[in-house]
Amino acid sequence: MFRHFRSDIQAVFENDPAARSRFEVVFTYSGLHAIWAHRVAHPLYRKGWYTLARMISQVSRFMTGIEIHPGARIGDRLFIDHGMGVVIGETCEIGDDVVIYQGVTLGGTGKEKGKRHPTIGNNVVIGSGAKVLGSFSVGDYSNIGSNAVVLREVPMNCTVVGNPGRVVKRDGQRVGDRLDHTQLPDPVIEMFRTMQKEIDDLKTELGKLREPVAGGDLRK
After folding, report:
1. Are 60 and 37 in contact (CB under 8 A)?
2. CA-to-CA distance for 123 and 157, rounded, in angstroms?
3. Which residues share a beta bridge with 79?
4. Is 40 exposed, middle or buried (0-12, 13-18, 19+ CB in 10 A)?
5. How many CA atoms lie within 13 A of 192 on its CB side?
6. What is the mean pLDDT of each run of 10 residues along the chain (220 residues)?
7. What order of strands is seen across the sheet that includes strand 143-144?
8. By CB atoms within 10 Å of each CB, which of 67, 166, 186, 212 scores lowest?
9. Helices 30-46 and 2-15 meet at what angle, rounded to 10?
10. What single-letter DSSP state applies at residue 73?
11. Own/partner long-range contacts of 112-116 (Cβ < 8 Å, ≥24 apart)
C-alpha cells in the first residue's frame, strides 16, 4: 500500500506543472486524497467489510467531491486533476498511468448485474466532463475529449470526441473530420446546418417550378 502512496505522489508531479512540493501535494490535492481513501477502502471491500468500506468512500466523497466506489479496481499512478464531480463505478477497472479531469463519469447504463462499468486501459487521458458508460474497454494510450459521451468500445491509441463519442484519430492518423480538444462537434449547430441545406434545396426546386415554359406560361 505504501508503495502505491509514493507512486501516487510522483504521478502528481509528472502530470501537474503547478505542483511545487511534496508537502503541498500531500495536504492540498483532493484527487490524491480520494485515491488514498480508496486504497484503504478497497481491501476492506474485497474482504467483505462492505459497510465499513462504503463509509470510508462516503467520507472521502464528502471531503473531496470525488466518488469512487470501493469495489472499483485502480492501477498505479492514477492522477485525478481537480476532480470535483468525478464518479467511478463499482465494477470499473482502471489501468496504470491514467489521467482523469474534473466531472468525469465512469458509469453504467442501467440496472444490469455483473460487470456494468468500463475498463480503462493504461496511459489513457479522459477530458473534463466526459462520460464513459457501459461494460466495454477503452484501449491503451487513447484520449477521450472533454464532454464526450462514450457508449462503445474504443480501440488502442485512439482519440474520441463528441456525443455520441466517435473516433477521429487512430494510430496518429485522422479519421473523418479534424477536431481537437477545444473544437468538439455541436449537435445543435449541426441540426441547423442540415435544416438550412434542406431549405436551400426547397428554394431551388421552387425556382425551377416557377421558370417560364415555351409559350410564356409558368410551369404548374
Report:
1. yes
2. 10
3. 99
4. middle
5. 4
6. 80 90 92 95 95 96 95 94 92 95 90 87 94 94 93 92 86 62 60 85 83 58
7. 79-80, 99-100, 125-126, 143-144, 158-161, 166-170, 173-174
8. 212
9. 150
10. E
11. 115/91, 116/89, 116/90, 116/91
**The predicted structure's pLDDT at residue 85:** 93
- HEC string of 1-50 equals CHHHHHHHHHHHHHHCCCCCCHHHHHHHCHHHHHHHHHHHHHHHHHCCCH
The one-character DSSP state at 201 is H
pTM above 0.70, yes or no: yes
Residue 50 burial (CB count, 10 A): 14
> For the chain, what's the residue count?
220
For residue 46, which amino acid is it?
R
C-alpha grid cell for residue 218? 409558368
